[in-house]
Amino acid sequence: MPKTRVYELARDLSVDNKEIIGYLAGLGADVKNHMSVVDERYAEMVRRRFSPTASLPGSSAQAVKPRPVGVPGRARRGRGARRAQERAEQPEEAVASAQRASESPEAPSEASTKTVQDTKKGTEEATPQTQQMRETPKPPTTEPSQSRPQAQQTPRQESSKIAHPKQETDVVDEVEKKEGSRPSKASSSRSSRAGSRPAAIAGRRPAAQVRRPEVIATDDDDLDEDFERKTETTPRRRSTRARRPKDSDGRTVATAESKGRPRQKTRSDRSAGAKDASQPSQPTGPKIVVIPETITVANLANELGLPATTVIKALMEEGIMAAINNVIDYDVAAMVTKKLGAIPQKHLEEKTPVVTVSVDEDDENLQPRPPVVTILGHVDHGKTTLLDAIRESNVAESEAGGITQHTGAYQVQKNGQLITFLDTPGHEAFTAMRARGAQITDVAILVVAADDGVMPQTVEAINHAKAANVPIIVAINKIDRPGASPDRVKQQLADHGLLAEDWGGDTVTVEISALKKIGIEDLLEMVLLVAELAELKANPHRPALGFVIEAELDRNRGPVATVLVQNGTLRVGDMIVAGTTSGRVRAMFDHRGRNLKEAEPSVPVSVLGLDDVPAAGDRVEVVPDERTARQLIEERLEEQKDSHRPGRTRLAELFNKIEDGEVKDLNIIVKADVQGTVEALTGSLEKLSDDRVRVNVIHAATGGITETDVALASASDAIIIGFNVRPEPDTRRAAEREGVDIRLYRVIYEAIDDIKAAMSGLLEPVYEETVLGRAEVRATFKVPNIGTVAGCYVTDGKIVRNALVRVLRDHVVIYEGKISSLKRFKDDVREVAEGYECGIGIERFNDIKVGDYLEAYEMQEVES
């Protein structure tokens, strides 16, 4: 129900505000000024009291229901001024005559009708002064049909009035026009006009007895002109007026459906009603927003249901400049979400479990497999020539410049046993495959020229093989050349940790000549001996599992991948997944080009049928069907997109990256400008090792930091320390891509101090518990997708966000964890002091009950 105020009543009734206030005060209503709200019961009493026809007993709202007025606002203002004059000047005899006339039950006679007409004529002849007194400060009023008084009607009721027959309205119009044209100072005229009033009023009662038609038309010619003027200032009423139907004569039509209909709601009423109707559907409590790992500002604003400018402003308040299409991470998005009054929730993608073939590796199914041998060494020391001698072929002549350009896989037979050889373009490819997880080499043959001795790439090959924990067999080649000195080579190898067996060590060394095929048989026998000691076995009855050695795009055969089967048996027709590519095996060929139907463990084959070229080192596995293959590829692509090369050890995060164990290893690669610095730095770092942390310098050399060093660090999870050297731009980009930490120094002690600081994080420090505060649980609240939040009162100390917490129930510890959220009212806070209330959420614990105590504490490291 709309509110009615004092000034509205005074305006509608043309009465001073003070009169209404005094009258209401006498009734006992609580009103103070013109803006006070008046109860509808008192408002009705005021209308009856101050209505112009209140003194006429015969006139009532039921006697005559005048037709609706087109623009009631303006006409009402004109009528109000005239009614004020009428009340001040109307003599008592006019009221008495009106009362006598109202008691007459007869219909109006011709004389009375004539009197009304004469009155109308007299009104038209009114003097200009009288007309000027009728005018209001507003624009000229409408015709008399618009300025008649409304007895006992409120603005609410005026809009619901209906039109009446022309007969009835003509009589009322004549009386109103006569009243409006009456001069204020002519008392004789007042008495004569008052005498004609009873005749007009008396004619109302029979008019009320006329049967009301279903559809009634009223003349609206004069209303349209005033309506056009009114809509210039109040355009919102145009649609309401325009919707009223008109007949063929242009007159407004009022239907019977509108009789007795309540007032139509205004725009404010409709908005208030819509607000009330929508209130029950509004969610209670803060909104929960699910946020992925990364999200754009526009999407975050859409999730919050707020304009993007609001989110951008909140980001700017936090010191973050972001446009609408910029991507922000979860932490920033969660901070802004909390700032805007919502609850952030991290979106955890549930990955579809990939159905792969799993076979129990029973000892009964395991069978010996051929060893996989990789040949390493310095450039032009005879690696490919040795392989030619073993294969009894000539591969070196087909290579450009006599240097191996591609990784080749070959298989030879010795004493009825197969040996698989991998010829790589140097140890870089060997390490690159190992960095991708392809730990496929069983034995490494290190080729060293007897005349050149140990070269820089030889040292790198030694370190790479050691990092892979692969047994090394040294083949001292070119012993037939002049100036060959095998003993000098053994001496150099001993300096790098490879002590020959004939010198009392455990490194197998064989003196050969690949060109003249000297010592080849002895080398193969030693390979078989080392493989036998390693007890290499595999299960040929399971689906195949292997790695890509090399891949290329053949213009005739399409993608061709050289695959080394590590376990199981690969057959033609199998559905395989190689990295992020898949396909069905259409054909397989061995290294001699022979067609194969199946490939057992340790057999290298060229596979046709993949839909794309895989990368060297990609894992190859057989899946049941194409659907499983697509799922596995999607999972691998998602892993590559989310985090490339995760888990690399960085010096600043070393303590958090090391896995638990009795012995912790810190692998380091040292590169310096001179050999003396390399030896000094290596010795100082190795002295930092103790029983709990072991520092391993897996590679140390002079020269700049190269991509080979980055590949070794990536495969070995090592840190690169450079002293007076700088990495090349390509090397730095490779380190960023692989996630390798490179530290550059100019003072040796700074490097040693940094390693000590990193190792202090590796050591188990001594901690001491410090209690921060206690809080009593007084209420619990269950938040959807969040859990139970405890409404607490801090009784002692303070509660700090992200602090450790233990839950005490009856002085017994029932849970220890970490505070996940701390709020005061709706705001996230860092701490809450004693004597204040707060909301506390505990990680992975929802069994909080009223009466529990939460004790916040922290562990402080004590220097030993």
Structure description:
The chain is an alpha+beta fold and 864 residues long. It has 6 domains: 51-212, no CATH class; 288-346, Orthogonal Bundle (Arc Repressor Mutant, subunit A); 370-535, P-loop containing nucleotide triphosphate hydrolases (Rossmann fold), CATH 3.40.50; 545-634, Translation factors (Elongation Factor Tu (Ef-tu), domain 3, Beta Barrel); 651-762, Translation initiation factor IF- 2, domain 3 (Rossmann fold), CATH 3.40.50; 766-862, Elongation Factor Tu (Ef-tu), domain 3 (Beta Barrel). The chain has 28 helices and 37 strands. Strands 11-12-10-13-14-15 form a 6-stranded mixed β-sheet. A 6-stranded antiparallel β-barrel has the order 17-18-24-21-20-25. A 6-stranded antiparallel beta barrel has the order 30-31-36-33-32-37. Strand 26 (664-672), helix 25 and strand 27 (693-702) form a beta-alpha-beta unit. Helix 15 (297-304) crosses helix 16 (308-317) and helix 26 packs parallel to helix 27 (729-738). The longest helix is centred in the first third of the chain and has 18 residues, at 72-89. The protein starts with a strand and ends with a strand. Mean pLDDT is 72; it is low at 55-78, 88-210, 212-262, 267-283, 350-358 and 394-407.
